């Protein structure tokens, strides 16, 4: 039984990480008062560009006669994924912040666009690589399991268990956790973070207090989009280990939007809730409740999200609710 | 599509237009559409395709022949009906993002009737030789679909009117619950296709399939009737007026003695029921069965259709046919070697431009040093 628990936990962490990244990006976006429903599209774009960038780097090194370095390949992928997500978010923020287009509709359009463009590019990439595109061993190694502190083959079984539970994930898991902690500090303790929350709650007041509302909104949505893009990179580089699979993000972006609500807009609760959502998505492989069909398990994250939504609204909780101005655009002249 | 910081604050400032002539508004929209087509062409060029060839093929794929036109109309029908449904909710500023789920639930309910009773009704029809069983079957499916879709739409409205629960996120989540339920049904013995291990709902008996008029299932007539009825309901009736008032301001509505909760519930029932109807037309008209792709993103695309048409059912008719043509035109491409996802890319670009151009219809830019007299 305990063995089962350990592998369930590990699998939940691995499945929850892309969700956590998407969620962190979306939390940052929503804190500025913008509901970006384009997470799925941004993750798709992050997924395809990171793969394409890594592949291009490897091909370049190959033709130049050098050995490709896994670390550089990883950095290239990271930058590309962030840039792709950020660029998509820039389209979104230009339309919603500057041109005041409706947030819901623009976000949905971004999802349609990003999903289409990523699959389009993925297919072209596969064609140009002759069948299907895959990265080389060094890049794959850079995205595979680590062994922090070298405890994997430790003599003590206790340390081995600790290592298995916490110290043997790929680097992106730790990266996501660090971002969550930094973001929590940023919202609670930093001046800029507090200003950002003011913008999201009541832009008119923030504006009166001398905060540059437009700049905050742009920066938050663009950086948030970049983080979503990195979440997409996880899907192509870790989950599919560097091979382009058609429709590889497959609804994870929407699940990330749900997770934002489930973790009630808090990055730290996002850590725990991401683990729970990760567990939900893979639970059917580990826990078999007789009579409960596989597809019903997959409903759990969404049902749980609705429950949280209802409970927080009944309790009239301001602390655990969506930033107040979310969904409506701010126009200074229209007060 | 790639944004530059064109709006440097000291240079330009924005003022709201008092009014704009419809002609001028259409010129702006036309320019935006042209911009979108050019941007799409550039993107295709960068990715190594001949844009003229692709656009030409798309037009042929959507309209070049009776068969293609039929396919385009078939795609447009559910899109148009769901868009009308969404417009009901959006007009009262109730952000119903759950059309996808409501379509599926409507499809499920209609399918449930068909799956459980089509054999009996077919036997009855064969025995009596009359049209009555078929009509009864189709009417029962219709009623099941609109009631189920409507109720699925009412659920978030109940929570919204009682506790102010956020309806955008609530309806969004309901989509995925409906989708998982469809996947679940495909595994159920009563629903499954016989003789295959592949999880797929079986085809209905022909008795549960909608008749065709001019080669397309009669859904297109229903859609056209709905355009007129919805337009009348929204602009000429008391209910329609109440929707508009609630949309403008719930406080005003309350002050005027309108029961806001009642308007929410009633309108969301209609909104969900229309989406459910779209689901019925897909399962009974276009596909003859229930699949995971019964909604297939129509619910999301319909939101953009409703928005671009400014909630006007008649404009929606044009926009829905246009989007359906894009979709079919690009679907046709896949046989000529260009990926089908091309459609989504082009739809995305066009929508971005259309969303952006609304700004220039509502606001005007005043450059530094220029007099505002022209406003």
Description:
The complex is a heterodimer of chains A (335) and B (375). Chain A is mostly helical. Chain A has helices at 2-31, 39-64, 70-98, 103-128, 137-142, 157-167, 171-189, 191-201, 203-208, 213-239, 252-262, 267-286, 294-314. Chain A has one domain (2-329): Orthogonal Bundle (ABC transporter involved in vitamin B12 uptake, BtuC). Helix content of chain A is 73%, strand content 0%. In chain A, helix 2 (39-64) packs antiparallel against helix 3 (70-98), helix 2 (39-64) packs across helix 10 (213-239) and helix 3 (70-98) packs antiparallel against helix 10. The longest helix of chain A has 30 residues, at 2-31. The longest helix of chain B is centred in the middle third of the chain and has 32 residues, at 132-163. Chain B starts with 11 loop residues before the first strand and ends in an 8-residue tail after the last strand. Chain B is globular, with a radius of gyration of 23 Å. In chain B, a hairpin with a 2-residue loop joins strand 2 and strand 3 (216-217). Chain B has helices spanning 22-46, 51-63, 66-91, 99-128, 132-163, 167-185, 219-236, 238-248, 250-255, 260-287, 298-308, 313-333, 342-362, and strands at residues 12-16, 212-213, 216-217, 363-367. In chain B, helix 11 crosses helix 12. Chain B has a domain at 75-318: ABC transporter involved in vitamin B12 uptake, BtuC (Orthogonal Bundle), CATH 1.10.3470. Helices cover 70% and strands 4% of the residues of chain B. Chain B has 13 helices and 4 strands. Chain B has a two-stranded antiparallel ribbon. A two-stranded antiparallel ribbon of chain B has the order 2-3. The chains are: A mainly alpha (335), B mainly alpha (375). Chains A and B meet through helix 3, helix 4, helix 11 and helix 13 of A and strand 1, helix 6, helix 11 and helix 13 of B.
